[in-house]
Write a structure and sequence with these properties.
Blueprint (H helix, E strand, L loop, with lengths): L7 H9 L1 H9 L2 H4 L2 H6 L7 H34 L11 E4 L3 E2 L7 E3 L5 E4 L10 E2 L2 E6 L6 E5 L5 E6 L2
Helix pairs in contact: 1-5, 2-5
Length: about 160
Amino acid sequence: MSHLRPLLPLALLAAFAFSPLAALAQKPIERDMSPEEFKAAGLDKLSPEELAKLNVWLGRKIDTVATEAATQAKDKIKEENRGFFHFGSNEPIVARLSGEFRGFGKGRNYTLDNGQVWTQTDSAVLVGANIDSPEVRITPSVSGNSWYLAVKGYNTRAKVERVK
């Protein structure tokens, strides 16, 4: 169940993102403003037809902004949680290891400069490497939710699992 925690923000966003904005989009501006605000904005000078067109435009604008905000939030959540889940993208995660790389070994943690932490889950071995902050590529497997870490300049890959 803990592996589902990273998706909680996405679920909450989906549940709540549109409900307040959709209600606002359907509420005419003259009902959302006080009579004083309505008059101060000069909206009392509009004909009923002009006011109706303004309300339609505002509704479309709110829908557009809400959709864009939801898409950006969804993309951000996907990017922040890649590695915990595949999300259908075959693009590798490219980053640098924080600190020195001394080879592969089962159970080792690899901290990336983007804040992600990965643990090696297989027994792949790479000895003799001693590199400061090398570039790495973490690629998803073709099927399932497996990930492989490769250090630039080396052909050996290690199976890893994101822990943070």
